[in-house]
Design brief:
CATH architecture of the largest domain in chain B: 2-Layer Sandwich
Oligomer: heterodimer
Structural class of chain A: alpha+beta
Shape of chain B: globular
Helix content of chain B: 25-40%
CATH topology of the largest domain in chain A: Ubiquitin-like (UB roll)
Strand order of the largest sheet of chain A: 2-1-5-3-4
Helix content of chain A: 25-40%
Bound molecules: FE2/S2 (inorganic) cluster
Radius of gyration of chain B: 27 Å
Strand content of chain A: 15-25%
CATH class of the largest domain in chain B: Alpha Beta
Radius of gyration of chain A: 16 Å
Number of helices of chain B: 16
Number of strands of chain B: 28
Shape of chain A: globular
CATH topology of the largest domain in chain B: Aldehyde Oxidoreductase, domain 4
Number of domains of chain A: 2
Order of helices and strands of chain A: EEHEEEHHHH
CATH architecture of the largest domain in chain A: Roll
Largest interface: A-B, 66 and 65 residues
CATH superfamily of the largest domain in chain B: Aldehyde oxidase/xanthine dehydrogenase, molybdopterin binding domain
């Protein structure tokens, strides 16, 4: 057991934990942040994606010791109060969730994508999102959601 | 042409899973309970309160609709929401008939203590069965409001209108909340509910028939929605369960001490061995240490290699009953075959896994002998029975609540995870959360049945005059041909299945329709006709012909013939559970892989209730079907899965999603049928037929394995 400190959605949180315990478990079980999902534990579905210092990261494969002192953003940390992000709103508007179990990972990934690339082409979106599984296979609506958010973002910039 | 609803083709599938309880607990043996000490549960920032949702305080079982004095309106059904959109469509149905805005309504789903038992959420029955029930109850409530007002105001009911949740007339206004208050708290009005109130006609719909944003979408996109695996109860532990090393292995001995030494609760009850601890990490570590001490007696188990032959050899022709063998025959099949040009072929399909993204999960809590379990199951009342049986409880001592769940596709009919969580919670004396690992979900859930088919037909010019279809193990959904054939024999044999099998999207229809529709292409070839023309020439079902024509038109089927080398187009259609699908697909075969370049679906499920949700269901179902057609196949040997992980069992992804178009044929004159299952049944045969067009190779087994010429 050791003590680790992580900045999670802007709050400094500490946990006593074995060093190899996955970040995913700490978020869900110790910090009560259940929005981040387990789908496989092997890096193949990306339902567990969070941002570690801005980088999309599979939290199921990330030992808590490796994020000590970093800043982690989960799906719960995106909206500011009642104000949804453009991506969250677009997922509602384009019916981007069926069961919604993959949605947190999708939105977190797309948030990082739109941050580094304001005007991604469809194939750039597909490349960035391809590691994410949606077993409901709602891929078309998910793509449409990301594209809508990008368009709105662009419009609001203009 | 007849447009009958083919009830005869809509019987429940014989492969719906039905099996005994997962465990036989001793329960009278003393559980070893280790003390893990009070208050060790770390919950740093976790302030978690679970609310069962809705204005449930005054709701009682078997009520369909609750009108609150505070103006709240709650609709209750025993159906579940797994992503198919039932919650939204039920809300629309109630709002339409009550004449209230959808925002004014809440829907409570699947809680055995609160909602009526609407059976399992399966077989695409929510739309044709539950939606009408909700509409009738809501129309009755509206009529009650009108009659109460008419009486109070001494007016004729026909002068009154209901809008925005209140009846108005001659300057008066009475809302549902007023009605609730006038009846006194917690009264039920079952006795004087008006019966047989006419439902709103389709042309007058303002809420139904529209695309509505998904109810609960905001909670999903903010991460606030709690799936079964996210439920947190005070003092809760996390569980892990020991699995056999191979199918059929029996536990001979195991030592719980190593797990207990790590501070976990450890329990053995018959074949059940599990741990609970304050984190899932500790539960897993404790279980691993126990697992090292376990001794097993293993048994021989057949491999997936040669599965089709195995199934035929292990057919059970004398198995009777609703789940047994079946034979139907009309006309003189043998005579007609003898007189005609005969063609025959055989097909095989493997086991496939549903792999819902949320694995099985349950949280169980005991309170003075009463058990509550939150779990993702498509059969809440069935799972309550399983719990009652496992723990010798009466039905009212067990409660099953189903939070909106992360996918099922027919794969979550059973309650094994609920039983396991409850057994651990009983041993621990604290609530326990148990979520299966992906590995467990692959190996220990159940599979879409593997199957083999033998088909013969007799042709007389472009007409099929005899049809002889034998299916080993797929299930019976869509086993009867929808084509007009005078002499038909259909035989179904269940087989002794090496793996546990059960429902799936379309279940038996996936295999039966694949075999039939590939064979139809083979027959078209022999008859020298275009596959579309051949099908139309043998159809008298107007709706099936209509979807075929609609898909072909949008695809420009007749122009698609001139595809280049290793590129080809295929078509397939099917009917199941009251809805009709046709698919045209163009593929390119490159090396050993099949790339879908374009896909057009046409679909008819009667009156469309929510076009946006319908389109999403069809597209998701079709893309899921691409996996079963092109990549999915469970392989096993020595009682172990050889590919039980996402890395080894490739599923459709963004990159595998082809350009797609979906044509919706709305039939407001025909009652709505479900739509979440049928589209899948035409995917594999359309692709198989396209591969033949591209390469000349017949694809007689799934997944398709083509090689470029
Ligand atoms: S749970 Fe982390 S990648 Fe699947
Ligand atoms: S919406 Fe169900 S897994 Fe993506």
């Amino acid at each position: 057991m050791a003590r680790f400190t992580v900045q999670v959605n802007g709050n400094r949180l500490a946990v006593e934990s074995p060093p190899d315990r996955p970040l995913l478990d700490v978020l869900r079980e110790d910090f009560g942040l259940t929005g981040t999902k387990y789908g496989c534990g092997e890096g193949q579905c990306r339902a567990c994606t969070v941002l570690v210092d801005g980088q999309p990261t599979a939290s199921c494969l990330t030992p808590i010791s490796s994020v000590d002192g970093t800043s982690v953003t989960t799906i719960e940390g995106l909206a500011s109060g009642d104000q949804l992000t453009a991506l969250q709103q677009a997922f509602i508007d384009m019916d981007g969730a069926q069961c919604g179990y993959c949605t947190a990972g999708m939105i977190v990934e797309a948030t990082a994508l739109l941050k580094r690339n304001r005007k991604p082409s469809r194939s750039e979106i597909v490349d960035a999102m391809n590691p994410h599984l949606c077993r409901c296979c709602g891929y078309r609506n998910i793509l449409a959601s990301v594209e809508l958010a990008a368009r709105r973002w662009e419009a609001s910039d203009a | 042409m007849p447009e009958r609803f083919r009830e005869d083709l809509c019987e429940p599938d014989r492969k719906e899973l039905a099996e005994g309880p997962a465990y036989r607990f001793e329960l009278d043996r003393r559980d070893w309970i280790s003390s893990i000490g009070a208050g060790l549960l770390v919950s740093a920032a976790g302030k978690v309160v679970f609310s069962p949702g809705g204005a449930s305080a005054q709701v009682r079982p078997s009520q369909r609709l609750h009108l609150g004095e505070d103006g709240s309106i709650t609709v209750l059904t025993g159906k579940v929401e797994f992503g198919q959109g039932s919650r939204t469509e039920i809300l629309q149905a109630a709002a339409e008939e009550l004449r209230v805005s959808p925002d004014a309504l809440q829907v409570v789903l699947a809680d055995t203590a609160e909602t009526p038992n609407d059976g399992s959420t399966a077989g695409s029955r929510t739309t044709p069965s539950t939606i009408p029930v909700v509409r009738r109850a809501s129309a009755a409530a509206r009529e009650l409001l009108v009659r109460t007002a008419a009486e109070a105001w001494n007016l004729d009911a026909s002068e009154l209108r209901v809008e925005a949740g209140a009846v108005v007339g001659a300057g008066n206004r009475l809302s549902y909340a007023d009605l609730a208050r006038s009846k006194g708290p917690e009264s039920t009005v079952d006795d004087n509910v008006p019966r047989g109130v006419p439902l709103t006609e389709v042309p007058d719909w303002t809420v139904l028939g529209q695309t509505l944003p998904k109810v609960g979408a905001r909670a999903i996109v903010t991460g606030a929605h709690r799936y079964p695996c996210d439920i947190v109860r005070p003092n809760m532990l996390y569980g892990a369960v020991l699995r056999p090393p191979s199918y059929g292995a029996q536990l001979e001995s195991v030592d719980l001490a190593p797990g207990q030494e790590l501070g976990a609760v450890a329990v053995r009850d018959g074949e059940f061995v599990g741990c609970a601890a304050k984190t899932s990490y500790e539960a897993r570590k404790a279980l691993e240490s126990i697992s090292e001490t376990a001794r097993w007696r293993t048994v021989a188990h057949p491999p997936s290699e040669g599965l089709g032959t195995y199934l035929k050899r292990h057919a059970q022709p004398s198995a009777g009953g609703r789940r047994g063998a079946r034979r139907r025959e009309h006309g003189d099949v043998d005579g007609a075959l003898a007189a005609a040009q005969t063609v025959e072929s055989s097909y095989e399909i493997p086991y496939v896994q549903h792999a819902p993204l949320e694995p099985r999960a349950a949280v169980a809590e005991w309170d003075e002998g009463r058990l509550t379990v939150w779990t993702g199951t498509q059969r809440p009342f069935g799972v309550r029975e399983q719990l009652a049986e496992a723990f010798r409880l009466s039905a009212d001592q067990a409660r099953v609540v189903v939070p909106d769940t992360g996918g099922g596709f027919g794969g979550k009919h059973t309650g094994e995870v609920a039983v396991e969580a409850a057994r651990l919670a009983r041993a621990a004396g604290r609530p326990v959360s148990l979520r299966w690992t992906r590995e467990e979900e692959f190996a220990w859930a159940y599979f879409r049945p593997a199957a083999a088919f033998e088909v013969r037909a007799g042709l007389s010019e472009e007409k099929i005059v005899a049809w002889d279809f034998t299916a080993y193990n797929p299930g019976t959904a869509a086993i009867e041909t929808p084509y007009a054939v005078p002499n038909v024999r259909t035989q179904y044999f269940p087989c002794d299945s090496p793996l546990r099998e059960g429902s799936y999207r379309g279940i038996g229809a996936t295999g039966n329709n694949y075999a039939r529709e590939v064979f139809m292409d083979e027959l078209a070839g022999v008859a020298g006709l275009d596959p579309l023309e051949f099908r139309l020439a043998n159809l008298d079902d107007g709706r099936l012909s209509a979807v075929l024509r609609a898909a072909a038109d949008r695809f420009a089927w007749s122009a698609s013939k001139s595809s280049g080398r290793n590129r080809g187009s295929g078509i397939a259609a099917g009917f199941e559970k009251g809805s009709y699908i046709a698919i045209c697909a163009q593929v390119r075969v490159e090396g050993g892989s099949v790339e879908v370049e374009r896909l057009v679906s046409a679909f008819d499920c009667g009156t469309i209730l929510n076009p946006g949700n319908l389109r999403a269901q069809i597209e998701g179902c079709v893309i899921q079907g691409l996996g079963a057609a092109l990549t999915e196949e469970i392989r096993f040997a020595g009682g172990k899965l050889l590919n039980g992980s996402f890395a080894q069992y490739p599923l459709p992804r963004f990159r595998s999603t082809p350009p797609m178009e979906t044509v919706l044929l709305n039939r407001p004159d025909i009652p709505s049928a479900g739509a979440g299952e049928t589209p899948i049944i035409a995917v594999a045969p359309a692709l198989a037929n396209a591969v033949f067009a591209a390469t000349g190779q017949r694809m007689r087994s799934l997944p398709l394995r083509a090689s470029a010429a």
